[in-house]
User: What shape does this take?
Amino acid sequence: MPLMRIPFTAPLPHPTIVPASASTVQGAVAALHAFLTAPAKRGGKTVILSGAGISVASGLADYRGINGTYTLNKTYRPIYFHEFSANHEARKRYWARSFLGWTTLNRSRPNIAHEAVANLGEMGLISTVITQNVDSFHPKAHPNLKTLELHGYLRDCVCLSCRTEYNREKFQLDLAKLNPTWAAFLAEMLDSGALTTENPDERRRRGLKTNPDGDVDVPGIEYSTFRYPPCPKCLTRPPEGTKVEMDSDGAWSPNSTAGVLKPAVIMFGESISDPVKLAVESAIDEASRMLVLGSSLATYSAWRLAKRAKQESMPIAIVNSGGVRGEENFVDDVPPYDTGTRGVRLLNRFRRSKAGLANCASSGSHESMRGAHLTESDAYSIEQWCHEHVSDGLLTTMPINHFYANMAGVHHEPSSDKVTQHLA
Ligand SMILES: [Zn+2]
Assistant: This one.
């Protein structure tokens, strides 16, 4: 079977900021505020579509960011569903790497960006969160705001034969019992701090590579020695026409024809179930607008949803540090002087000086009036901006400001009076 292509592993083109006023922190906050609160049909609530970018501040790598898995490791290739379901050796390798990566993932927590989403939910602005992430941070951070997990979740395993789900944490203990040498190696890695540091550079320096699936790369490890248990239910009552056997220690035996456990995530080459597809489509159809957070929309399943929203003439806001697949399709129809009600495109970086923005805005061409191109050299982070403006007494913790600042991993940011008044 030919390998499926992982879409868009090369950097996407740099985005245009829309509206142009959103090139400053205050402008960005004002634009997002206008976007989220504009009068609208269908209840006026926003559906959020989030991706790996929102979990970076929790210590997980994204895929296509500056330190993303595909950016740093050009040969990285995730496991494909057909390999996992058909190949015992591929499963041993997957579970061995997952066994090592689980502790780090299980210890990581939602960050302030997830909390900010929770805040927006409490303010009644959000209808549903659709996430591509499998880290369970959204449901943890806002259990009362509905989350639809497009690509499943790592917190459970699922049996490929009977679809019974089992807790992944408990499964980790089963793996440790079956693989004492690996368990000792894991303990050693944890002791060395290679798995506990949240600094990706430090992790790499210690020879460890992790990716967003909670998978770890450890050079020189022999995966074929790894063992994993069968589905307990299928072991007791194998589905008709199958056999499920285990060895004397309780590991799944290759004589078996069923009872294979898989993480409850959608692997590459695997289809999203119809109930999930229908649920996310209804979530979009019932919302008034869509806010994309930390996703390049590179996977077709996510891009399709943003396209659906656009086809329904919903305003779309995109906050992502890099380019987005086909992004000219999403905001190119926003009028030049719109305040953000018809669409917003933001980075989590801003122009260094107001003069720079003024120059851009006054250069006269239509193009520069509607959008300002940011480059690495003239952009700087919200964190720097806040640091320089703390003495102005402008800092506030109003939820929407809190939300926007969170996208850059900082707690506070300046606010315009207008936004503060609206939210007070
Ligand atoms: Zn089963």
Summary: Residues 1-5, 351-424 have pLDDT under 50 and may be disordered. Residues 159, 161-162, 164, 231, 233-234, 259 surround zinc ion (CB under 6 Å). The first strand starts at residue 16 and ends at 17. Residues 298 and 325 are 6 Å apart (CA to CA).
